[in-house]
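[Automated response] Your request has been received and processed.

Submitted sequence:
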Amino acid sequence: MSQYQTAGTNARLRLFALLDAQGVPASEADDLVAALEAGAVAGAQSEVVELDGMALASRGPVFADGWDEGVVAVSEALVSIADRDWSRRGGRSAGAAELAVHISDVRQRERAGLERLEAFVRETVLPRTHPNTTERRRVLEALGEAGCLCNVRTVELSSGDVILCTREAGHYDPDDKPPFKDGKPGGWHQAGASIWSDSGAACDPHTAV
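Generated structure:
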């Protein structure tokens, strides 16, 4: 029965979420779900009632009496359950509260997962990237820490790809020209092996950041 209980709970939460997305008030959503649940129990009760008098005659009158008493007891219990579910109507918003708890739990698990992912990226991925590379910039962007980097971009002529400078913001010094023979950027922009100035035709913007 546990699988049906789990499926029922998930379906109930899903139904509340769908009704909420459609703008159905919480109290009305509770009324609808309570009516469905009470109706389902009432349907089960009607099937149980039909078992009255259905005991095997070969088991004797004592067994038959116990059988019928059992049918009555189960039937009355189901009626009480249906009444209880029906009494949940009236805008108590029990279902909406249950949904809120469920959503809070899901978000908490998501936050925990994101924290583990962030720790992995920070402790394992980031140290493996090299300074002034696009790969490092992408990792810093994923961590939300790329705000300290320069935002000047250019087009790489060999590939046509747009690349962003990977040096710190405010670094640009047009007078500090790079000695291209050893690949040092001087005060110019850099992304990996690409070095460029603001005056480059493919550079956007054309001013220092």
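Summary generated for your ticket: The chain has a mean pLDDT of 77. Strands lie at 153-155, 162-164, 189-191, 194-196.
If you did not submit this request, please reply to this message.
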